Amino acid sequence: MIDNQLPGDEESIDEIVEQHEELGPIDPIDPTNDNMVETARQRYGKGGAAMAAGMFGLDVALGLKKKPESVQVQEASSKPVNLDSDGFEMPIDASTTVATPALERRPPIGVGKRKSRRS
To answer: Predicted confidence band at 75 (pLDDT cuts at 50, 70, 90)?
Structure first.
């Protein structure tokens, strides 16, 4: 085995590099192509198609996740109004005002003693 030769190869690394340099630069795959896996198969064989399909699958699985919305804190200049106990009143113009009364206080739903299931 020669010093710059990969195990199991009959060619040296320098010969392989020279062969690839003769081919010239490789054009990148066009992302606007509808059938990129087929293009990869035509250019690089079945292994290229399998690799392209795997990479596109990872891109879809990892790339389409929505980022969580950031929490926005807004400070009020005064204490917030409690519409349930205070009601609401808003002037529309000099002679018109819209108002809603405060809500009646009711006991919470579901409060009370439960009957035992054991009889």
So the answer is: confident
In the chain, beta strands by DSSP E: 88-91, 97-100
Map out the domains of the chain as residue ranges.
13-63
Give the pLDDT confidence of 17-73 residue by residue, as tens digits. 777 676 666 666 666 777 878 888 887 788 888 888 888 888 777 776 677 777 888
pTM, full prediction: 0.31
Task: Quote the CA–CA distance of 96 and 104 in Å, as a whole number.
Answer: 25
**List of residues 6+ apart from 22 with CB closer than 8 A:** none
Q: Which residue has the tokens 């879809």?
A: 60
CA 4 to chain centroid, in Å, comes to 46
Question: What are the backbone angles phi and psi of residue 97, rounded to the nearest 5°?
Answer: -135, 135
